[in-house]
């Protein structure tokens, strides 16, 4: 059965709250409240040959941005890339859910992150289509979900995905502990 929307504790509509594009009322997730989590998970400069991301700085990879001098990337430059290329979650009401999906998009790509969100929604009883697109149906289902149950399910599915990667690519097993910590956070 579909979970009822979890009440938002101490929520009082303010001038900052508004209706989402799909009609829900509430204060929407903000990039500024999510970016520190991403930067904490991604860290600084890394060039580990076993890392599927390759050369990265603040989580921004040379594979994704071949023309960028990754070693010289500033924190502000990384934040701008995250805002422009990764933050698509401003229609989600739950800040923790938006941050978690943003974190997955950074680490696994948008398509995989959105598929995990959609599978998690299905697993808690919302029959959304799993297509990897963060469209109105997925946003509406997300905003209508029990956020705590949704986060638990996302965490499980993230952990499963990380285990699949480690099984498929044994050289990545050294990252598994931190990936599991990331999934659980």
Automatic annotation (TrEMBL):
Residues 1-26 are annotated as: Disordered. Residues 113-183 form the Peptidoglycan binding domain. InterPro entries: Lysozyme-like_dom_sf, Peptidoglycan-bd_3, TtsA-like_GH18_dom. SUPFAM superfamilies: Lysozyme-like. Residues 36-109 form the TtsA-like Glycoside hydrolase family domain. This is Uncharacterized protein. It comes from marine sediment metagenome. The lineage of its organism: unclassified sequences, metagenomes, ecological metagenomes.
């Amino acid at each position: 059965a579909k979970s009822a929307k979890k009440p938002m504790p101490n929520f009082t509509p303010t001038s900052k709250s508004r209706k989402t594009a799909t009609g829900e009322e509430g204060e929407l997730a903000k990039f500024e409240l999510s970016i520190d989590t991403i930067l904490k998970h991604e860290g600084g400069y890394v060039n580990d040959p076993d890392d599927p991301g390759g050369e990265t700085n603040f989580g921004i990879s040379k594979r994704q941005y071949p023309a960028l001098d990754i070693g010289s990337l500033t924190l502000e430059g990384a934040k701008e890339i995250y805002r422009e290329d990764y933050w698509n979650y401003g229609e989600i009401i739950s800040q923790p859910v938006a941050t978690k999906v943003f974190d997955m998009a950074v680490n696994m790509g948008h398509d995989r992150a959105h598929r995990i969100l959609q599978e998690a929604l299905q697993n808690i009883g919302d029959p959304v289509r799993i297509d990897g697109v963060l469209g109105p149906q997925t946003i509406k289902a997300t905003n209508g979900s029990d956020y705590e149950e949704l986060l638990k399910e996302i965490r499980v599915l993230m952990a499963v995905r990380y285990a699949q990667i480690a099984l498929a690519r044994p050289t990545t097993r050294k990252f598994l502990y931190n990936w599991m910590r990331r999934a659980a956070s």
